[in-house]
Amino acid sequence: MASPTRVDAVLHRFLPNRQRKNREHVGKIASRKIWYEAEDDSNEWVEWTPPTLPEPKRVKFEGHAVHVYMTRDQKNDFSNNTTYSASKITINSPYLREELEEVIKKYDVSFKNGVATFSYPFKPLFFSREVIREKAIATNDENTREHLKILWDVIEEVLGDTIDAAEELEKDESISFDLLWTLFPHGSMATAPEFRFGINATRCFRVKEHIKSKDKNPKVFKLRGTYVAFNGSKFVVRMISMHINKFHGTKKISQLEAVPLRSRPDYPEIEHQLKKRGQRVVDEFQTAFYAVHSRHVGNQGGGNAVVESSDELVIIDHYKYSQERDDLKGSPIAGYEDLPSKQRSGDEGEASSLKLVDIASKSRGAYDGISDDDIRKNRNAVLLNEENLTLISPIVFGFSLANKKWGAYDIEYIRPVSSSDEAINHLVFDPKKKELLSALVDNHLQTSKQNSDVINGKGQGLLVLLSGPPGTGKTLMAEAIAAKTGTPLYTVDMSALLPNPAERLKTIMQLTTSWKAILLLDEADLYLQKRSAAKLDMIEQVSAFLSELEYFGGVIFLTTNDSNLIDRAVISRVHVHLQFSPLDATRRSQVWTSFISRLPPKQFEISKEQIESLSKWKLNGREIRNMLRTTITWRSKDQRPITLDDLDNILAITYPNAGNDGKDTDASVNELIDL
C-alpha cells in the first residue's frame, strides 16, 4: 500500500470549488464514490480503474456523501495485476456532519469546508464504528439513516479485515504488534507500571494519542496520555508517554507494557483499588503529612534512585515541594470553573465534612500551605468526575528527615506516624523532668498560647537546652519527646549549615515552623559560641540566630557538651535547661537491663548478677550501643545466645582502655540504645 504521505501529496482535481456559490448539492446523494490513483503519476484521481479515464462532471461527483480514495499497492497480486487499497476517506455529507462532528472531534478531525478527511488506517472510523451503527439505528430521519448506512458499509469494506483480526485476537486475549493501536481508543483508560524514582507501582492514564513513528519499521509503539497529580495548590492534568516494545507473532494483552484498564484480568477490582488510592491523596495529602515510608525509593537530587529496606520518617508536602521544584506543573483538571459558588468560596456544604489528616490537625492555622477552603474546592473538583480518582498519580512528594532531601515516594508504602511512649519510658532520666518536658512540648505544639510579649509575634517559641558530656542521652531525649508527641524531629548537624549558616538555618526554621516539627540543633556550641571581637564570623552567626529566634514560633532543642561555651544572649532565652550528669554503676545497670529487655529473650543469656558486672565497665551510652551491636553482628551466624564471655571478648577489642574497678566513674550514659 502506498504510504499516507504519498496520498496526501496527490491532488484531487474534483475537490469542491470554494468560489462556487451553489453548494446545496454537495454530499446529498446517499452513496459513496471510489477514486483510483492514476497510473501515469499525473497527480490525479480517476473514476474507474485505469486505463478507462472518462471526463466526469464536477457536480456529479460532489454529490456523493462519502468518497474513498484507492492507492496503488507497491506490489501486484499473484497474477501480476495492479491492486489498490483505500488510503483516504472523505465525508462530504451534511447529514453525517451533524451526527458525527462531535464524535470525531476528539480525534483531532474536523469538517473543514464541509469535508472531513481520514487517512489510513482510519483510526477515528474504527473506534467510532459502533457509535455510527447505533446512530443509524436510533435516528428517525430517513436521509440521515441512509447516509450513516453508506458510511457503515464503507467501514465494513475498508476496515473489515482489521476488525475481524482484532476481534478474533481479542477472544484469545491476545494482540499483534501491528494491531496494538486497536486496543487504545482516544479517551480510554489504560495502566502501566510506574518505574520512575525506583518506584514499582501501577499508574493509570487516559489515552490521548498514538505517537506516529518516523521509521518505516518501528521498534516500539508509542502512546501519549494524561494523568492527574496534585501540585501543592490544585489537581492538574499532566502528560505522560508510554511505549510497548515490538514483538513478533501475538502476545497476551495482560503482558504488555501498557494494558487497557478493562482488559486487565483483575478488572474491576483494580479500578476500585485505584479509586481508593486516589481518594486517599485527596483526603490526606493536600496538607503536610508526617509519615513513615517503608522504604525510601528515590530523590530528585540526581543520580540513580536509592532503595532502602528500613523505615524512614518523611513529611509529604506537595506545597513546599513545588516551591523547590518546578516539575509538578500542569493544567487544572476540568471542573474548577463548574463548581457552585458556595463550594468555590468554601461555604458550608457537603465538602465541609472533609476529614483532614495532617501533621498538626489541632493547629492547622500555622501551616502556610493551601487553606481549608482550597482543600474543599480541590476535593469537589476531583469528585465532579470520579474517573479523576482512578487517574491520580501513585507518587507523592516529600522531605526525608533522614537525608534532608526532597524525594518521590510510593503512596502504597506511606502510613501515619503513631505516637509512642516506648523510648521515653526506657530513657534513664528523672521521670518527673521527662514528664514535665513532654507536657511543655506537647502543649506548645497543640495550642496557640496567649502571647505575653509586648510586641506581637515575638517570644512565641519554646527553647530547650540539653547539656552534658558525650553519650549521656541528650539526643535521645529529643528523639523520645518527638516520638511521644508524634511530632517530626528535624535534626541539624551544625557543620552541615556551611557555607552560609545564617541563611540555611533561617530556611530550616521556616520549614520546621510550617510543619510543627521539633528542631534539634546538635552540638550547638559550634555555632552559638560566646561572641568576642576576635571572632567576627561568630558575632554574625549568633546575631542572626537571635534575630530569627525572636520571631520563631516552634520548638528548638539545643545540645551541647558544655553550656558555658554558648553565648549568654542565647542562654538567657532558654525556657528549659536540662543537665545530663555522668551515671554511676547503678544507673548503668538500669541501661543494660532496659536494653537487653527489648531484645528477643533467646538472643541473650545474661543473668542479673552478670548485668551488675557489666555495669562496672566505664562505658557511656554510645559505647554500650556500639559494643552490643558489634557483638550481635559477630554472633548472628552462630544461632546461639550471647553470653557474658562474648561481651567481654568484644569489649577487649573495642574499648580496651575502659576500666572495671567497680567504682563510680565519670563515664556517662542516660541512654537506651535503639538498634
How much β-strand is present in the residues?
15-25%
**Any low-confidence stretches, pLDDT <50, length ≥5?**
1-21, 50-59, 296-308, 342-366, 448-455, 663-675
Largest sheet: 6 strands, antiparallel
* Strand adjacency order, main sheet: 12-7-8-9-10-15
Which percent bin holds the helix content?
A: 25-40%
| End-to-end C-alpha gap | 70 Å
Structural class: alpha+beta
What is the 3D form? elongated
What is the number of E strands? 23
How many structural domains are formed by the residues? Answer: 4
Radius of gyration: 37 Å
The total of helices stands at: 20
Query: Residue-averaged pLDDT, rounded?
Result: 82
Descriptive overview:
GO terms for molecular function: ATP binding; ATP hydrolysis activity. It is a single chain. The protein is elongated, with a radius of gyration of 37 Å. Helices cover about 35% and strands about 20% of the residues. A hairpin with a 7-residue loop joins β1 (about 30-35) and β2. The strands form five sheets. It has a six-stranded antiparallel beta sheet with strand order 12-7-8-9-10-15. Strands 2-1-3-4-5 form a five-stranded mixed beta sheet. With about 675 residues, it is α+β, with helices and mostly antiparallel strands. α4 (about 125-140) packs across α5. It has four domains: about 5-170, no CATH class; about 170-415, no CATH class; about 420-580, Rossmann fold (3-Layer(aba) Sandwich); about 585-655, Orthogonal Bundle (Helicase, Ruva Protein, domain 3), CATH 1.10.8.
